[in-house]
Amino acid sequence: MRTTVDMAAADIAPSVGSVLAAQSISERAMSDKRIVGLARDAIDTLCRLARPIAIMDEIEKGDFQNVYHGEGRNEPETPLGDILQHADTQALFAVTLGEDVSREITRLFDENEFAPAAMLDAAASEGAETVALTVEKSYRDHLRCTGSLGSTAATMPFSPGYCGWHVSGQRALFDTLRPKEIGITLSDSFLMHPLKSISGVIVAGHKDIFEFEDTFPFCDKCETRSCRSRIKAAMEQ
After folding, report:
1. What is the residue range of 155's domain?
2. Could you tell me the pTM of the whole model?
3. Measuring CA to CA, which residue among 221, 183, 177, 226 is closest to residue 199?
4. Confidence of residue 91 (pLDDT cuts 50, 70, 90)
5. pLDDT for residue 123 is more than 80
6. How far is CA 126 from CA 13, 71, 129, in A?
7. What is the CA radius of gyration of the chain?
8. DSSP 3-state percent helix, strand, coil across the chain (nearest 5)
């Protein structure tokens, strides 16, 4: 099931509140017209320049185990390693907002326009996350339509570089998924280009398999603990 999905930039545009929250700007700043104006300008720029597109391809568990092993640099124990043992199905994915947005962020920073650059960077990151969530929902809907995902099952995305899956796993993922088809390439240091891109795997299975504690050794280095919100979202599907 190899699928390419185009989206309208307006459909993945974040709210002013989410752009400010992504930069840890308090709600009190919502009364500052200058800050709100910068956020709105960033969202407008995102809608003008972004070309959101995604690619997704289902993969057999054994084949994904090879992708996940990658260069053998994962942590000894990881949430995804445990989850895969009980998963029903999984699909690789990659999403991007295109080159124009990244180019504009770089230009603004290079010209010392730090406030608009930071706002656009935050807006683009939020937009890319929305594209990834849209792809996850698309896969979940497909599984439900085909009877492959019951009412007690859910989906959850994981990406190299997080939760003990070493970032070098990008290489095996890219070799298998081949997202160059939608304009995403990988550097020797495993950095995706365009920068506002996300790749990973969407895992489907009974909701219980996604409930894990954030007590792995590498969790102490995690600043966001975003797994908590992803688990909550899976439980509510």
Report:
1. 3-235
2. 0.95
3. 177
4. very high
5. yes
6. 8, 30, 5
7. 18
8. 50, 15, 30
**How many CB atoms neighbour CB 147 within 10 A?**
7
Which amino acid belongs to residue 160?
A: P
Span 34-61, average pLDDT: 97
Is pLDDT of 236 > 90?
Answer: yes
Q: What gap in Å lies between CA 151 and CA 195, rounded to an integer?
A: 36
CATH number of the domain enclosing 231: 3.40.109.40
What pLDDT shows up at residue 17? 93
Q: Residues in the chain, how many?
A: 237
Q: How many domains does the chain have?
A: 1
Alpha-carbon distance of 176 to 195, in angstroms, equals 20
The DSSP code sequence of 121-161 is: HHHHHHHHHHHHHHHHHHHHHHHHHTT-S-TTEEEEEE-TT
Sheet containing 53-59, strands listed edge to edge, beginning at the edge strand earlier in sequence: 3-6, 53-59, 89-96, 197-206, 153-158
Instruction: Please provide the DSSP assignment of 173-224 as one string.
Output: HHHHH-GGGGT-EE-TTS-EESSSEEEEEEEEEEGGGG---S-SGGGGG-SS
- Helix then strand count (H, E) for the chain reads 8, 7
User: Which residue type sits at 2?
Assistant: R
